[in-house]
Specification:
Length: 283
Amino acid sequence: MTAYKFKPKRFLERLYFLDSANPVDAICCAGFELKAWRCIPFAEHLIEWLPEYALPEDELAITHANMYVKLKKAAVRVYTSKKYAKRGEAGEIALHAICREFFNTTPISNRVFYKSASNDVVKAFDMVHARFPQAGGVELWLGESKLYLDTMDAITEALKSVTEHLEQGFLKEQKLLLGPQIPKTTPRYDELMELFEPQTSLDKFISCGVFVIGILSNSKACAGATQITDAYKAALEKEFDAISERLARSGLTKSIRMVLLYVPLADKDGFVTAFDDKLKGLQ
């Protein structure tokens, strides 16, 4: 695979990171500019990731001659609905970007591409990536993103979704649907595909899985800050502790490997509107 060697320039700042336990924890922030949270620049950054999020790798050969056509195609595949306020694609793209940028994952299934209509809501994992540790083996990164006003509502719904996704019937269905979508040019393709074979136990599928929860929600700390300071970081970590505690009470980390990501927003509605403006501008 060659297209995935290239990434947009890093935008989000990782303010907190703990990888010595389960879950792996991280806080990423868009930062501030002229004493204001970088709402529009964050939305613009997600547009930079749009082609990779919405197009399969064989469509990512972009030149000056087809650049607009590719961006328009990607934008239309995300959604065209005027009712954008409760759509979560901006959160999904942010989750995609964080995993690509900070964890060096590789996309293996662009779920947006396989929608039958632009505004469909796909009932599946929000992100399907793979990771190939230097020590060998493969990891299947399965993501669930929640873009909400309230942080506790977001983590509650995320945990509900992950729990439902772990049900036997859902996992078997996902194995059947995702396997044929994986490009043959994917590194360690045969090893990865073995996980999706009907004969492979779901236990092995789950043991190779890393379940990623991305929470993007309004943050009092972010709304009250004008720059990244130690006090701001401490306030974010306090907010994150509440999310982490809720995950711990669920008991999920006793049976699966997880990554918990928190992206604080100063204005969720403003952010969604800014993203929609940029997306519609390409359509």
